[in-house]
Structures are given as structure tokens and as C-alpha cells.
């Protein structure tokens, strides 16, 4: 049976590899960059309009997949809470000591505290291990979607896409 | 008998959008809704919408509902709640039950925007308290702030099932699984991914066999089905749940249209029997228009556009809008609609709508 987003509910390695929204490893190591996990031709384009650096292109036909110009992306985070599908993350692999951060949209209450230790989850909800919350942002413009950054071992940077509070 | 220029039956996204467009040109509009609150399903929609800026993408449904209501109010649209349109008779006469009295109303143009009702599937124990529709789960959690259950099984992986499963997680439920008899997830992958990443398993080619419990749901048996949706015995699994939530499709609420004699067409891709209608949303009965889910199951964004087109067309046919201006504005709306009816999820709906338009031409 063919696995993948439309069967398991989460992206397979193959689907990620073939997506036009995924930055290269070398770009991720240079600093924060958007990771757009949007692989279906659904009619949607707020990400394109939100990007002031012009790094995201959907085009005239709004069912096109968003494609990322990784050199133009400045890692500003604006697109993360904007995506109605919560499919955009910000990954930074430039940290020392084999660490990385993943920034993700978060629509649950209570919000974690900065510095709190939470459990990082992969796309299927499987526990990866402990992660430290390094930033929690929620402004009026984000319309109730908070953006939470967790620090994790670098090996998880392209796997950790959610977290669960331990309390 | 009370007379008015336009009546909209239903104050959901389609009805409100139509009322706004018509009133903007000067049409006198009354909107009847049987509920005690306006907005249809919009106020349950706490997620951000898809689409483009013109479709109000990235805005949440209830915010769009608030804005539509405010706009309608400013344009002098009368919204009459607790008002049930009982029947549409010859020459667009209607009986309307407003609270405990019945009024006769005659309108030059009627828009039927009554929406849809949820499908249910029968299984052993399906009448137990705890077996609920996804709409009910949303009403409880998002309107009344009540968690429908603690451990929930979601049946159906269309966008409704996926969005509600996510909202149940937000409400603090544990979602045991999302199951679907189809081999693939029906809704948007991004909605599924939001649920999967919190550990909810997706079991495709599965259906509910039985709900357990004496006076309420205390568990469920699910079973795998083959490609013909036939249960495969021996594949049963026990689910420890107290709530079974059904999100197995919607059915257009066409009773008023059927009784008034509109031509109906069976279109599976639009949810069943739907009224034939033209590009202006007018049915085979002159002066009776349709918009939103009653004219074929789609979504709030498309309902709003259909409503706008119906409202513009009504304004034009009543002499409030020049033909040239009407055609230009309608083209704008149709253009906007094309975006929403494309892609692998929307294309089939677009084709089905073209078919309905073709039926009108004969």
C-alpha cells in the first residue's frame, strides 16, 4: 500500500524530498529558513503575500504549490502563523554544539513558558525526546496562532514538528 | 400579506452575502433564519480559511461571520431570527412561522440558502448517547464551550472530520483515531497533518461496526473494509472511546425547492439531489435563486461567492443595477470562484456545477 500524506496523514520522506518548499541542508546550516510542507494543489496563497522578501512564489494559479527561494528567505518568521494549514516551520541549524531550533505554529492552551522542557513530537506524533522552549510569541497580527520555538538536537530538525507539554 | 422585494431563506454565508450585494444596490431585503442566531455554520468555524486574500484567506470563519452581519446591518438588511419558512407557493408566496405566529409573505425574488444537514451511518448502537455528528461536536465546543467527550473516535476524513478532530484536540479531548471507509484521506493533507502530529492515527479502509454501552457509548468496534467497502471479518479492533463523532458527508436541504417544483438533478459530487441552476444561481422557477450548500455541497468561501452572484443578479433583474455593471461584477466573482474550484480537491465540484448549468440550458 502506498504510504504518505493521503494515507497516514503525514508526509513521507519521499514527499518531503520532492517538495518545492524545502530548503537544502546547506541553507539550513546558515541560519533560520522557512520549511514549507505543502504538497497538495489546494487553492491557497497567503504565504506568498506575507513574504516581504519575495522568497515564496505561488503564482497566478492559486492551486500551485508554494516554492521557496532559499537564498531570498531571511528567516523573518512572518509566514509561520499566516499559513491556514499550519504547514510552515522555521528551521535553524546554525546553532553550535549540534543543536538546532524549530519554530512552529501552536494553537493550544495553555502556552508553554520560555525555558520550559517539553516533549518534541515528529510528524506522526511519535515522541522524539526532550526539547527546550526558547521563545513564545503571540501578537494581535497573528490572530491567536502562537509561534513557539523549541531547541532540539540537530538530527531532529527535519523531524520535530510538534510538542507536548509535560505538565 | 406582507410584500417585499427580496427574501433570503437562511442567514448563513450564502444568504448574508446575497443580501449584502442586493441591498448595496438598493434592494429591500428580508432574511429569515430558523435559528436563534444568524451566521449559519460560520460561528463554529474557528479555523483559518484557505484561498486568496479576496476569499478572506487566513481569516477565521467566525470573524468573517461577524463582518458579514455588520455589513448587512449597515445596509439596512432586516434579519428575522426564529423564523421558519414553511413553504414556497405559487407566485413566490410564502408562509413564515415567526416564533408562534404565521405570516404570509410575498417576494419578487427569493433566494433559498438553507444549507445542508449531516449524513449519518447506521451501525449497532448508533442511537446511544455519545454518537454525535461533527456539527454537534463543533456546536458544543465552539459555541457553548462544552467538551463533547473525553475520548473520541472520528468517523470520516473529509475536511469536516479533519477540522473537527483538530478542534476536539484543542478542546482537550483525546482523539483515538480518524477512520474512513475510503482508502485515502478525503480532506486536505495539511488538515490531516495538524491532527497526525499530535499522535492521532489515521486508519483508512476502516468503518464502525458497533458502538458499545448500555445507556451511553463506552467503546467502539471498528473493522477493516475491502475496496468494495465490505467488512473483512477478523479485522475488528476495540477502541476505548466515550464519543463517536460522525463526519460522513452533508446532504443539501432542498425540501423547500422540491415542494415548489424546481427541477432537481442527482449529482453525487455535490452531495445528492440538487436544484438545476444557471450562472446567475437562478433555478428553473423564475425568481427563485439558490446559493451555498443547498445548491451543491462545497464550502463557506464558495457559498459567499455564489451568494454575491445571486444578490447581484437579483439587483439587476429588479432594475437596481445596470446590465453592464452587473456583468462586470459577476465576472469578478466568477473569476474569484475559478480559483476555489480548481486543483484536485475542487475541480470535480467545478465540473459538477458546469453540468448543473448545462442542464438549465437543456
Summarize the helices and strands and which ones pair or pack:
The complex is a heterodimer of chains A (167) and B (362).
Chain A: H1 5-8, H2 13-17, H3 25-30, E1 33-36, H4 46-50, E2 56-57, E3 67-68, H5 79-82, E4 88-92, E5 99-106, E6 117-121, E7 127-137, E8 146-153, E9 162-164
Antiparallel strand pairs in A: 1-4, 2-3, 4-5, 5-8, 6-7, 6-9, 7-8
Chain B: E1 2-9, H1 13-24, E2 29-32, H2 61-74, E3 78-80, E4 83-88, E5 93-98, E6 101-112, E7 116-118, E8 131-133, H3 134-143, E9 151-155, H4 159-170, E10 174-180, H5 189-196, E11 202-204, E12 206-212, E13 219-224, E14 237-239, E15 243-246, E16 250-252, H6 255-260, E17 264-267, E18 272-275, E19 288-290, H7 300-317, H8 323-340, H9 343-361
Parallel strand pairs in B: 1-2, 1-6, 2-3, 6-19, 8-15, 9-10, 9-15, 10-11
Antiparallel strand pairs in B: 4-5, 5-6, 7-16, 12-13, 13-14, 17-18
Helix pairs in contact in B: 1-2, 1-7, 3-4, 4-5, 7-8
Rounded radius of gyration of chain A (Å): 15 Å
Low-confidence stretches of chain B: none
Give the number of DSSP strands of chain A: 9
What structural category characterises the helix and strand content of chain B? alpha/beta
The Rg value of chain B, from CA coordinates, equals 21 Å
**Spatial order of strands in the largest sheet of chain A:** 1-4-5-8-7-6-9
Give the overall shape of chain A.
globular
What proportion of the residues of chain A is helical, as a percent range?
Answer: 10-25%
- Strand fraction of chain A equals 25-35%
Q: SSE order of chain A in H/E notation?
A: HHHEHEEHEEEEEE
Key traits:
heterodimer, A: 167 residues, alpha+beta, 9 strands, globular, B: 362 residues, alpha/beta, seven-stranded mixed beta sheet, five-stranded parallel beta sheet, 19 strands, 26% strand
Describe the 3D structure.
- The complex is a heterodimer of chains A (167) and B (362).
- With 167 residues, chain A is α+β, with helices and mostly antiparallel strands.
- Chain A has helices at 5-8, 13-17, 25-30, 46-50, 79-82; strands at residues 33-36, 56-57, 67-68, 88-92, 99-106, 117-121, 127-137, 146-153, 162-164.
- The longest helix of chain A has 6 residues, at 25-30.
- Chain B is 32% helix and 26% strand.
- Chain B has 9 helices and 19 strands.
- In chain B, the strands form 5 sheets. In chain B, strands 1, 2, 3, 4, 5, 6 and 19 form a 7-stranded mixed beta sheet that branches. Chain B has a 5-stranded parallel beta sheet with strand order 8-15-9-10-11. Chain B has a 3-stranded antiparallel beta sheet with strand order 12-13-14, with no helix packed on it.
